[in-house]
Amino acid sequence: MSKIGQRAIHYLQRLNSASFTSVYASSIEKGQNRVIDASLTLIRERAKLKGELVRLLGGAKASTSLLGVPLGHNSSFLQGPAFAPPRIREAIWCGSTNSSTEEGKELKDPRVLTDVGDVPVQEIRDSGVDDDRLMNVISESVKLVMEEEPLRPLVLGGDHSISYPVIRAVSEKLGGPVDVLHLDAHPDIYDCFEGNKYSHASSFARIMEGGYARRLLQVGIRSINKEGRDQGNRFGVEQYEMRTFSRDREVLENLKLGEGVKGVYISIDVDCLDPAFAPGVSHIEPGGLSFRDVLNILHNLQGDVVGADVVEFNPQRDTVDGMTAMVAAKLVRELAAKISK
Q1: Could you point out which of 221, 275, 302, 334 has its C-alpha 20 to 30 Å from the C-alpha of 42?
Q2: Which residues lie below 8 Å from residue 95, measured CB to CB, with a gap of 6+?
Q3: Which keywords fit this entry according to its UniProt record (predicted)?
């Protein structure tokens, strides 16, 4: 065969290889789009069902709807929080306590609490979808819940990376920033922790960069370094550390938030609590809030709560009898009462 013929064959082989690669990539992307569309359809139809029920019953200006986001891969340590949503649901309805909140709201009333299920995070990731698109799916899922008035999202994590797409969605859907009350042992405001912009340790940097929060109050902080404080100063964050909690208690138990913005969002990392109350977390930090401290802050808070999340419960580190699951469930119950009206 002539050299010209050999070059021609080599060229055609390269052309076919490039064509095959392009066709394969296009096929993968179409498949991923179908997985995403199916995932959003699942949330859309469940939210529509719950919204229709609540509207039929009438009398609710705001109704809490649970949305699970079982995501754990953005954790810098353990990924057990991905298994938390079903454990929290099980604890809510386990029957060991009645279905009334401390302030007297009945959780079995759909106008107080409904559930639209979980974003199918694992299936989406198994299809090869990257975190940029996954975060968008989480945001769109939250917006689908909010479209069904009077439903408001109470999101079950998952690690704390989910708070970024959730708060982004709430802010975008409402048309402006919210005030955020963040209870946590850590400020989660690293610029890009370990090279991951979506790390659970960087979620509030993304929130503040995006302008989705006007005020960010961080309560229960007791594991913070220079970058955490520098980032707090950069974004004007109000950081309340545990070492001064006794002095700050009166302020924190009489908060008034949300005036002049679109409402209040509450994000609770279970490790805000002292591990004596909640041992089932990935990052155990002694010296935290008591459970009653947290409830006093929540119950006394004045403001229109438009959404919330409970994150970082790790069932793989919980006690045999599920003590932390019950703690997370109680937080969800009281948040549902705070949101619904």
Answers
A1: 334
A2: none
A3: Arginine metabolism, Hydrolase, Manganese, Metal-binding, Putrescine biosynthesis
248 among the known binding-site residues? Answer: no
- The angle, 0 to 180 degrees and rounded to 10, between the axes of the packed helices 131-147 and 163-174 is 50
Contact 190, 207 (CB under 8 A): no
Q: Which of 237, 32, 203, 51 is nearest to 130 (CA)?
A: 32
One-letter amino acid for residue 52 of the chain = E
Per-residue pLDDT of the chain (341 residues; tens, 9 = 90+): 556 656 655 654 565 665 656 655 778 899 999 999 999 999 999 999 999 999 999 999 999 999 999 999 999 999 999 999 999 999 999 999 999 999 999 999 999 999 999 999 999 999 999 999 999 999 999 999 999 999 999 999 999 999 999 999 999 999 999 999 999 999 999 999 999 999 999 999 999 999 999 999 999 999 999 999 999 999 999 999 999 999 999 999 999 999 999 999 999 999 999 999 999 999 999 999 999 999 999 999 999 999 999 999 999 999 999 999 999 999 999 999 999 99
Helix (H) or strand (E) holding 238: strand 238-241
Taking the CA atoms of the chain, what radius of gyration do you get in angstroms? 22
Query: Does the annotation flag 271 for ligand binding?
Result: yes
Q: Is 132 annotated as a binding residue?
A: no
Q: Is residue 160 part of an annotated ligand binding site?
A: yes
Q: Report whether the peptide linkage leading into residue 158 is cis, meaning its omega lies within 30 degrees of zero.
A: yes
Could you tell me which residues come within 8 angstroms of residue 129 by beta carbon, excluding any fewer than 6 positions away?
32, 35, 36, 137
